[in-house]
Amino acid sequence: xxxxxxxxxxxxxxxxxxxxxxxxxxxxxxxxxxxxxxxxxxxxxxxxxxxxxxxxxxxxxxxxxxxxxxxxxxxxxxxxxxxxxxxxxxxxxxxxxxxxxxxxxxxxxxxxxxxxxxxxxxxxxxxxxxxxxxxxxxxxxxxxxxxxxxxxxxxxxxxxxxxxxxxxxxxxxxxxxxxxxxxxxxxxxxxxxxxxxxxxxxxxxxxxxxxxxxxxxxxxxxxxxxxxxxxxxxxxxxxxxxxxxxxxxxxxxxxxxxxxxxxxxxxxxxxxxxxxxxxxxxxxxxxxxxxxxxxxxxxxxxxxxxxxxxxxxxxxxxxxxxxxxxxxxxxxxxxxxxxxxxxxxxxxxxxxxxxxxxxxxxxxxxxxxxxxxxxxxxxxxxxxxxxxxxxxxxxxxxxxxxxxxxxxxxxxxxxxxxxxxxxxxxxxxxxxxxxxxxxxxxxxxxxxxxxxxxxxxxx
Length: 459
Ligand code: GDP
Ligand code: ZN
What we know:
16 helices; Gyrase A, domain 2; Rossmann fold; 6-stranded mixed β-sheet; Four Helix Bundle (Hemerythrin (Met), subunit A); 13 strands
């Protein structure tokens, strides 16, 4: 399929040393050649080469900007079309001027957000799952989330879905043969085969869904609340975590900003610390336990870090909170272990699970590794460093996997209750279709538009 030619600034808009204008489509090379003054004629240049020159307005002859042009002929390009990238070195104004000149060329128009990636998908260079990973790449907030998204963009997850689909299509083919040639009378054999193949597929779907929760956490960070009475060391802990911070802080559309959040990483674990304004409060006299805040934390947080002071006896408030948090994912941090013990540790151990107790001295930077290990066990069964970066993290993928799971479950069920094979076929076919939708087969235009509209301009 041949589309028109699109152009956009592909780097972040703002003051930067360099900006790239990307042009993709059948007229990309011709249009650029018309405005590019260089020793070489771009039309004759080889693919995957760089060329130095100037962009000039063909009408006025005015030289607009000194540039380096990259030429990539389709299909060996990101969009699988002819692609030209103009690397401009000046500031915002110069880049906009270049784009203006580019867009004045016949047959060119400004790209919509995500349109380059959409073309890569429509031209069959990537599947929908890979395209969606490009969005995640742009938004990822930790090294690990980035690596996970990159794996998905490379197609690691797509491969597993394709293999899964293969299992289901084999089953479907077998059933269809059976429907077409019923005189073969392989009914019993077929039932066993349906169960066997469905189980095989269900096993893999189960594995993929298990990674979903971990994937979500990696993408969004573990929503973490630090609570505890004044002076136990909450601010100090927060500051220490923030020092470790290697996460890039960005705005995620759709998240409320009324609680101040901070992204930090503890080893490979991304944490999203809630209500940091309240904890940062230096005037600890006004900092109360904040019943309301604890409430919110109790309900919304994925993880509660409840800090106690080793150098202090337990307070009635602590007991109340500990009781309330019994069923919540809570880690009890016994802070100030460098001081003498006044806290009744027997009581603490009676009130909460021993494996959730972490002894620390924030002052002496002791215990951070144990905290990391405890969180890792709690959320990743300690497997976070296994190196397997295949995670299902997209809600669309998760719901389609669940749908396929349901359909295959129904198929197995049906073999037990003597339901006619052509009805079982419907279940199996529906599983096959759900899996296909993940990769972008048989999805409607409106869904595709909706997915790509989440992109930023120039991607
Ligand atoms: P918050 O009220 O819970 O935020 O507590 P802060 O972080 O403001 O700490 C209260 C006081 O305890 C400060 O003077 C800290 O320096 C001190 N502190 C924090 N952590 C430790 C620790 O591990 N050992 C000791 N000895 N003092 C600490
Ligand atoms: Zn504080």
